[in-house]
Amino acid sequence: MSLDGTYDPDNIFAKILRAEMPAARVFEDDHVLAFMDVFPQAKGHTLVIPKHSTARNFLDEDPEVIGPLMLGAQRVAKAVRAALNPDGIVITQFNGAPAGQTVFHLHVHIIPRWEGVALGRHGQGMADMEKLKVLAAQIAAKIA
Ligand code: 5GP
Asked: Mean pLDDT by 10-residue block, N- to C-terminus, for the chain (144 residues)?
């Protein structure tokens, strides 16, 4: 998948949005849904996605969606910090398979980092859903 292509309404995040697939949900408002990444690169790796979107990537997105998406990402990142006390936080997103994108519904990664703890490999090593739900609840409790 390159930067160009047709949005697949059956992509995994679209299914999570429609509750056809389970996810450890953290937060949602009118614009965004946040949930735990099931192949986390670090403890607390959270994804934020626009709810009303058929954009495969950042470049495709309606400009009116970008603002609420980034506000949601900041709100969730602050909650991740408050819940888990990381030393740093990576906030990133990938556009096109050569850039590392694997799911083609626009999303923002929030990845807490700790001094001396290496980053896990992208999209590898499935987490236990019950543990993710505990983390999701800890982060949700800190949403301001
Ligand atoms: P991308 O590689 O497209 O930037 O990010 C996609 C992310 O979605 C990856 O970090 C991957 O671990 C995560 N992911 C893939 N499938 C699922 C899933 O079924 N549920 C959840 N919660 N995350 C997923």
From this structure: 91 98 98 98 98 97 98 98 98 96 98 96 88 98 98
The neighbouring-strand residues paired with 50 are: 32
DSSP 123: T
The alpha carbon of 62 and the centre of ligand 1 are apart by a number of angstroms equal to: 22
Decide which of 3.30.428.10, 3.10.50.40, 3.40.50.10940, 2.30.29.170 is the CATH code for 12-140: 3.30.428.10
Task: Give the relative orientation of helices 63-84 and 129-140 as an angle to the nearest 10 degrees.
Answer: 100
Pocket of ligand 1 (CB under 6 A): 12, 23, 35-39, 94, 100-103, 123
pTM (global) more than 0.85: yes
